[in-house]
Amino acid sequence: MSTLNKRIVILGAGYAGIFLSTNLSSKLDKDSNEIILIDRNNYHQLMQEIHLVASGFRTADQLKIPISSLIQGKNVHFIQDDIKRIIPDKNLISLNSGDIKYDELIVCLGSSTKYFNIPGADKYTLPIRSIYDASIIHDHISKIISDENKKHNIVIVGAGATGISLGSALAEMINASPNKGNIKVNIIEATSTILPGWDIRVKNKTEEILKDKGIRIFHNSLVERVEERTLFLKDGLEINSSLIIWTAGVRGYNIDIEPTIDKTNDGRIIVNEYCQTNQYKNIYSIGDLAAMKNSKGTLYPPLAQIAVRQARYLADNMAEYYIKGNEPKEKFDYEIKAQIISVGSDEYVGLLNNYVVSGDLAKMIDEFTKQTYMKSLKTGGKNISVNLYENDFFSQVMAGITFAGFTFFKGLEKLA
Ligand SMILES: Cc1cc2nc3c(=O)[nH]c(=O)nc-3n(C[C@H](O)[C@H](O)[C@H](O)COP(=O)(O)OP(=O)(O)OC[C@H]3O[C@@H](n4cnc5c(N)ncnc54)[C@H](O)[C@@H]3O)c2cc1C
């Protein structure tokens, strides 16, 4: 345990911030070091399921975990406030309620929607980046479903994982309603395939599922501008829509840092493989907001599984090296082993160790990871489900054995 007297301030209680604060609290001496966690919300959001709030398969409350329940009994002091500005030269954070000093600062404020400067996109479309956004979409969809007098188009711009999951869930909601014949879900994608960057086998399987749900997909379709209820594509096509949802781009959350530090064009804070920023030794960034290159030289994608691993890595380094003023030995290095996408209220498809999984197996993997993820949230530590996503041989074997046991007991539950 370290005994140095430091105040560590963590901005954002998303996947990165929660894991970092709970994990770090178990590693640092309680009496000497102070860990402060700040977020505008007093709950942690389970982002992977927010499309199910938009489609009414989950309530907003089901996806909000009170931060107090996650940090209970830990050396973490939570402040609910809006973070306005970071002033690195004074080691100071400006909050709505006043200023706060830090010795070490970790910025994990996540991401926001990127509109590519397309005219009207930010004004006439809805984003889906929080439970709040999802609830607003749900209100709109509910009105559309209850309107039996008109035909409606719902348009989702972007066929990445968020657009696909949202489109599938909305189509399922609509198909279960008496008004299904009047409403069509459309997904607009700028490139030639859905799920850019994913394995071709997963793309094909997912496209089959979307077609079965009656979703219309527009490939190679670039949005030129958006007006109220109308989308104009570069190829001249105009699509009228009762609701347009924008999932096409992600950028780093725009936090004011004065003087500024190095960021990418997409507003992500540039960090090295040790999570450190270029300009300040005591400022780090992890999660969606951090732009860190992997061993192949490309940026890690904005995914919860990356945020969680960076948090655990940084907690180790913080306790072992940084607060003692030393440099860490090992770089962060992670290879994505598993990716599962939700394609309906209870349907999944994905890739595990290069095998395509769908149907009951994919569903079981998703349930397994979610259930055990909830347990690891409180400790910030590794557990067996998270191991399914780990790179080392031991973790993979342990995860395999536990998953087999989980599947067996689930099977028994079904028989009973
Ligand atoms: C619809 C959807 C589905 C997704 N599904 C998956 C999935 O299946 N698998 C996967 O790996 N990833 C998924 N992701 C991505 C995943 O949610 C992110 O990678 C992850 O949330 C990043 O964690 P983070 O801690 O960096 O940011 P976040 O989890 O976004 O946390 C940022 C925190 O900062 C707080 N905050 C921001 N600005 C301020 C401010 N000014 N003041 C105070 N607080 C502030 C926010 O309230 C939030 O709590 C999905 C994302 C979306 C939108």
From TrEMBL:
Keywords in UniProt for this one?
FAD, Flavoprotein, Oxidoreductase
Extract the coiled-coil ranges from the record: none
List the signal peptide residues: none
Question: What protein does this entry describe?
Answer: NADH dehydrogenase-like protein
Gene Ontology process terms (BP) = aerobic electron transport chain
Instruction: Name the needed cofactors.
Output: FAD
Q: Does the keyword Flavoprotein apply?
A: yes
Per the UniProt record, which EC number(s) apply here? 1.6.99.-
Residue intervals of the FAD/NAD(P)-binding domain: 7-311
In terms of Pfam families, this protein maps to: Pyr_redox_2 (PF07992)
State the Gene Ontology terms under molecular function: NAD(P)H dehydrogenase (quinone) activity
* Recorded family membership: Belongs to the NADH dehydrogenase family.
Q: Which Gene3D superfamilies match?
A: 3.50.50.100
